[in-house]
Specification:
This protein has about 375 residues and is an alpha+beta fold. It has helices at about 5-10, 20-30, 40-60, 60-70, 75-80, 95-100, 105-110, 120-125, 140-145, 290-295, 350-360, 375-380; strands at about 130-135, 150-155, 170-175, 180-190, 190-200, 210, 220-230, 240-245, 260-270, 275, 280-285, 295-300, 305-310, 320, 340-345. The strands form 6 sheets. It has a 4-stranded mixed β-sheet with strand order 10-11-15-14.
Length: about 375
Amino acid sequence: MAKRDYYEVLGIPRSASTDEVKSAYRRLARQYHPDVAKDNPKVAEERFKELSEAYEVLIDPEKRRRYDQLGFSGVETDFGPQGFTWQNFTHAGDLEDLFGASPLFRQFFEGFGMPFGGVSRRESGRGSDVEMALRLPLSAAVRGARPTVEVPHAKPCADCRGTGAKDGTALEICSECDGQGQLRRVQSRGFSQMITIGECPRCHGVGRKITEKCPTCRGTGTTSTVEKLEIEVPAGIEDGAVLRIPGHGGAGRAGGRSGDLYVQVVFESTGAIRRAGQDAFTEVTIPLATAVLGGRVTVPTLEGHADLQIPAGTQPETQFRLRANGFPRLRGSSRGDLIVTTHVEVPRSLSTKQRELVREGLGASEPPPQGRRESFFRRRSS
């Protein structure tokens, strides 16, 4: 089924403010959350996921700008090749005041490592994210690329399988939080109660304690490594775009899931060609004779060089368009154009014969020598 426009999904105009986006999402979330729509939970879950994907994009100013400009292709790199998943949803906390007290709500999201009311036990051991920049030639934006990068980060210790305990021995349940990984404190203030939920200080949110540390990782559950990873850079990607590679960041603590790797793609400038959206722009200087008489010149392109036919009488700063020689659309088949601006080279000096030929061809006469101007009355009487 084709994806629907995000504004249509939330039922708002394209000019909607941030508050209007949030209000529309909260209103529809009440209707379609699986904890509420129990008659057909499968359909409700799909609809709720569609709403959340639209909200994730439209509530974020940068993602919304790219979506408004490029459509779905502008945000594909934020979600990865598999499309939007609950791991991409970073605004679930915006609904906590609506569903936070519901066990099903917490179960629904915490199953994906998402914390509510503090830090969930599963998320507390999540590894850190790793960021890096990847420099590529401009041609990679045309054909795509699969470069191999080296990513230094921590990985789960092989000897203790990431638990931090010697020889993979069992972990002891934390007596402070009774294995929950978080502590719940209730304070009464008059007729109201204030409930705060935070990470357990003894087990740091894991819910378990190490009785004997692993000698290899010293109880951290991780060791340092350099991972060689092949990155897929799709054709048509914009300069500065960020690719997210799930699970290739730092290792989690005590068996927690790994963080993600974020790769910013930076294209090296060629000097001869610049980019504006899908179109490419370049310049070429042509001889005066070619501009006057016409001819063929060679111009740089994204994939080498091409011949350009210059018609007779071409004026300076004339632009020519080479169709489908620009940048491809992200995950699409169409390509932009190459715009070539021509500059005409005027010779600084000419031989006597060349000067005569120019005068003859242009019908020009010899200008009077400097300092020998005829008077107005002499010209009138002649």
